[in-house]
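Honest question from a wet-lab person: if I give you the sequences of every part of a complex, can you actually get the arrangement of the whole thing, not just the pieces? Trying it with mine:
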Amino acid sequence: MRVRRGLSTVVGAVFAIIALTSTVTYVSYSMGILDNYNQSVLTKNQQLTDVDKEKFQISSVTVPNNKLNITVVNTGNLPINFTKIWIQNTTTSATDWVRSYVPTHNFVVPGGVLTNIGQNSGVNINLANSYNVKLVTSRGNTQQFSINSPSSTKLNIQLFAFPSNVPSTTTTELVMIVTNNSTNTFVNVTPNTPTSTGSSTFTYPALGTSSPPSYDTLLPGQTILFKWDLTPTANEGDSRTFTVSLKNGLASNTASTTVSIINLRASSSVWTTTWGVLSIDYTSLQWTQDGGTTWNNAWSVPAATNIVWKVSITNNDPTRTFILNGNTTLIGAGASTGAASAVPFFIIKNNYPTLTAYPTNYQTIAHGDTGIIYFQANTPATVTQEQFSNAKIGQYSVSILIFGYWNSVSNSNFFGQNIPYEGIVVH
Amino acid sequence: MKRVGSSRRGLSTIVTAGIMLSAVAVLGSAVVTWSSGNLKAFETALSNTAATNTNKINELLTIENIVFCSNCAGSGSNKVINVTLTNTGTIPVKISQIQINSTTITTFAKGTTLTTIMPKNSYTIAVQLASIWKSKSVDIITVTTARGSTYTTQVAPP
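Yes, you can. This is the full assembly:
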């Protein structure tokens, strides 16, 4: 039996095939378009990522032979191609002076250093002028720095005087500290000579050029330092305020400090506190005539009895230890008729009331510390006791002669000092 | 007398089948033609949209440098800003509009104009303002391309 399909089935099949073919074609085409679009998005995303990953730092800029010499470090992960350098003269008198050129040295690998950028350019740099320079990479990133002109950015400037209080004709130092807290790099940073206002009787030689006169490069985050020696001649209490600024800097970008004049007085207390050596607490000077049972600080001292003295000595030196020598003496100098011309009491070992002869160099006082020293012997390095005899009754001024060394016993470490005076009456 | 093994359709059946076949063929062809046209139109629209968007994505412009010109439009008149644009993408970019602080610039100095920048090339447009630029103010410069991309930067005149 023969099976025959109807014509309608055939026609339906044809239409179905046409519809399916069209749909598949359309979907395939759409997928192709979407794929292209997706690729474009990915490519653009990669480009933007590369732009973000591209990082470089200007490590130094100099201007030898009036040509820029820029050194750049590639701190990113991608090679960098510098496509252009823009240079604009920002000096006030310059009008529309802008140059751009393509550098010859222009390619640097990640981690690499590219030097001599700008040396091939036809652009001459006049260091009397100020410039803004911009480096442009092939990905469109830029980095800008200023030459000779912090005029666009306020830098952190501080000025100090070390010390700020000085005696007349003594040299102090003005120190200018400049910190670049911007993201720009500055080239040829030069300070102006400090100006001052204040007492008219405060005079000083011209400060002149700083030391150093300038810095070639001031990178972001970097701090540089300039200094001037200042030797004022003035009266006590005079002062002047010094102000510094940078050449071509912002007018308001200044820093100031005041230098005042003080006079040092030649009194013992001022000397000891000013010069940082040995000082005594006068109330600590005491004497005993009963083996240390009773210590007296009365100025009335009985004659004809052996005496032991003690006193507290402070080492004001900031760093050094003082070593007392056996020549250290408390000496009573006669100040009235009948008194002896001088009665010495030499140092003994500081284990009193045990009487021990003092070794040549023994007792030490660390810097900043106070030590008690004892005097008793009538000759160095003995325990032969001294006293004021009845024949020596009278008034005495007592002073202490200190001999010793700083840190170690050495010819280069000698130190001697006389600490005056305390009055006693021997009766 | 009846014939054995022979069947005969009526004429009406044949005519009806013919009419139905013709109708199906005509209607089917019409639907197929209509669908095909629509699909073609969709394909074209899709293709255009995709091309436009892809080109827009591939467009990459950099505002490379801005110079505030003091003497470009006559002595002492601070009315011109030189805007240097660089095409860092892979397809040409046509600049269609430049705005300074949302004001569309229509006048350009030194013979410059809104133009097409080829890939890896730069072009400096001397934008002329209606009034002089003001020192230390913040200006927003917006560049728009023919494809609708916008690029913005902020600058401060010296």
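Two things worth pointing out. Chain A has three domains: 56-148, 152-261, 268-426. Chain A touches chain B at residues 7-8, 11, 14-15, 18-19, 22, 25-26, 29-30, 33-34, 36-37, 40-41, 43-44, 47, 83-84, 86, 88, 90, 95-96, 98, 100, 134, 136, 138-140, 142, 152 (CB under 8 Å).
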